[in-house]
Amino acid sequence: MAAGDATAIPRLLRDLHPPVVAYCRARARAAGATFADADRLALDACRAVLAELAAPSGADRPFLRLAYTVVADATDTEFVLTRANRLTRLQQEILILRTIVGLDPRQTAVALAVAPGRVALEQHAALTSLRAA
């Protein structure tokens, strides 16, 4: 976010809000909560991301990692993620980020702080497990 750029925050929110809503809705659905609850949480999470960006430590992490951490922490507090079909937490997060949010494997790896190869392996294992269920 450029210092003094009055259009930076609205542009960032325009780009950030849709994937945050998708993520929050996926987590809400898995927890049996409503989309209205997810939408309220998404707005709060976007505000928290902006606040974190303004913090001195905010510039130390890749934006995608920072945003994911803030939003995942908010949803962890609000919605309990159940274990579906014996998937691990990492596998569930990869499926949400790849299929619902629409991140590519590299972006998913950055968000989760794992190697891109691990994203592919875990996604494959998760899909194989779901097919077998």
* Low-confidence regions: none
Helix content: over 70%
- Helix/strand/pairing class, anyone? mainly alpha
Global shape: globular
Number of helices: 6
- N-to-C SSE string, H for helix and E for strand: HHHHHH
Please outline the helices and strands.
Elements: H1 8-31, H2 35-54, H3 63-78, H4 89-101, H5 105-112, H6 116-132
Helix pairs in contact: 1-2, 1-3, 1-4, 2-3, 3-5, 4-6, 5-6
What does this molecule look like?
The protein has 133 residues and is mainly α. Helix content is 74%, strand content 0%. It has 6 helices and no strands. Helix 1 (8-31) crosses helix 3 (63-78), helix 1 (8-31) packs across helix 4 (89-101) and helix 5 (105-112) packs across helix 6 (116-132). It is globular. The chain starts with 7 loop residues before the first helix and ends with a helix. The model has no long low-confidence stretch (mean pLDDT 89).
Key traits:
single chain; 133 residues; mainly alpha; 6 helices; 74% helix; 0% strand; globular
Brief sketch in words of this structure:
By secondary structure, the chain is mainly alpha-helical. 74% of the residues lie in helices and 0% in strands. The protein has 6 helices and no strands.
